[in-house]
Amino acid sequence: MNLNNTPHSPPAVRIVTLPPGRVAYYQASGEHPELAAWKVLLEWADKNGLLASRSSFGLFGFDNPPPSPGKPVYGYEVWITVGPKTEEEGPVKIKDFPGGTYAVTHTELNAIGETWKQLVRWVKAGPYDEGAGQCLEEHLSTPGKAADPQLLSLYLPISET
C-alpha cells in the first residue's frame, strides 16, 4: 500500500505476516546500548557461520526496556533469525518468536524517531489497531558498519479493528 509522502505519513506501508521462528538474542543496557548489543550478537553469529549469506537471516532490534523521561539508561535487544539446530552459547540465548501481522515501512537511521511516529499515526488512521506483539526494527544494513545511510524496516504489530 503506497501513501503520499507527507510530513504525517510514512512514504510507503505494506502489511506483512512474519511466520513463527527462532531467534538468537542478546540484550545490552546503557545510555546508548545499540552498538554494544550488536557487537556481541554479530561476533557470535560470525563465529558460528551465520553471516555467510545475508539473504538467509534477518537482523532485528528494539528497545528493551524502553527509554523513560529523566532516565538516560535503557536497554536494547537484538535478534538474528536462526534454524532449529542452532544452540545458545555464552551470553547469546535462543528463544521462539511467535510471528504476527505487521505494518511495515522503510527509513534511514537518522529519521527513525519521526518515521515510527508516522507509522503509528498511519495505523491509527486506518482499519487496524496496534497489536500486542513486539515492535521491531529490521536492520537492512549491517549495524555498526560504515554504510551510509543505515537502512531499516520498521515493523509495528497490528490487528484488524
Would you mind describing this structure in some detail?
About 25% of the residues are buried. The protein is of the alpha+beta class and about 160 residues long. It has helices spanning about 35-45, 110-125, and strands at about 15-20, 20-30, 60-65, 75-80, 95, 100-110, 130, 135-140, 150-160. Mean pLDDT is about 90; it is low at about 1-5. The protein is built from two helices and nine strands. Strands 1, 2, 3, 4, 5, 6, 7, 8 and 9 form a nine-stranded antiparallel β-sheet that branches. The two termini are about 20 Å apart. It folds into two domains: about 1-20 and about 100-160, no CATH class; about 20-95. Helices cover about 15% and strands about 35% of the residues.
Strand content: 35-45%
Total number of strands: 9
Order of helices and strands: EEHEEEEHEEE
Largest sheet: 9 strands, antiparallel
Which word captures the global form? globular
Distance linking N and C termini: 18 Å
Structural class, from helix and strand content? alpha+beta
Determine the fraction of residues in helical runs and give it as a percent range: 10-25%
The total number of structural domains is: 2
Count of helices? 2
Oligomer: single chain
What gyration radius follows from the Cα positions, in whole Å? 16 Å
Low-confidence stretches: 1-6
Mean pLDDT: 88
